[in-house]
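Could someone model D-glutamic acid with this protein?
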Amino acid sequence: MDDRPIGIFDSGFGGLTAVRALRALCPEENIVFFADNGRAPYGGRPRGQLRTMAHQNLAVAASCGAKLIFAACGTLSSNAADILAAYPVPAFGVLDAAVAEIAREKSKAPIGVIATEATVRSGAFQRALQAACPGREVHAAACPAFVPLIEGGRVERDDPKLRRAVEYYLQPLKERGVGTLLLGCTHYGLIAEALGDYLGGSVRLVDASCCAAAFIKDYLEENGLRGGAGTLRCLTSGELERFERLAPLFLGQSEPPQTETVPVMPAEEEA
Ligand code: DGL
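Reply:
Sure, complex below.
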């Protein structure tokens, strides 16, 4: 039994959907979640800054004694995959988890990836999917309006502004006949209904957050690391009141989790 916590981080609330899925699958695990709300959103930032932030967020998780660290953030996992892989504590991200899930599909239909601008620009999801799913076309679309809409609470499937944005970003993928759509940003699971409504029931939506939970469970089991008392501790670099108000919504619970604030770190570009 290893009751050290699992360290999970994201720019903000999207990562809590991964925490929620993990708690459903492994309720006994202790989790420390770092929400870098003070620096969100990440999706429009330059790669050098994102790489610095990956180092910093890993250090926050490691300082909590994490046995495993998980970047529940498509933007950091795609721009800093090498930094995660080289870290002295085992560290993974949604890129690893989502690609492993899609590689299991038998389908040969084209794969669509939607994510932040920085994720799509990195090309990391496209390369990893092409390597893991030979013979399948991969088409990626950056959807910069989604995170602000989601953080602003516009997540209902019939929200007119959200529906217009979904159609705008997804039309080219629909025209290419994608059979699987990877939600490569952990915020997007919150608008899965609107995405599914537009694409129709024959397209499989793969939510990177849900893949994270299964991936973490498998890793812990394979390495004899399961154990804990089911605690959740949150750290936010943003406003405590806002985090405590919104976190229960993303976690699917009525009470705010135990939360502390941490200072916003300077995000100078990696040299
Ligand atoms: N949820 C994160 C991701 O998966 C970051 C979104 C953002 O901060 O722009 O990419």
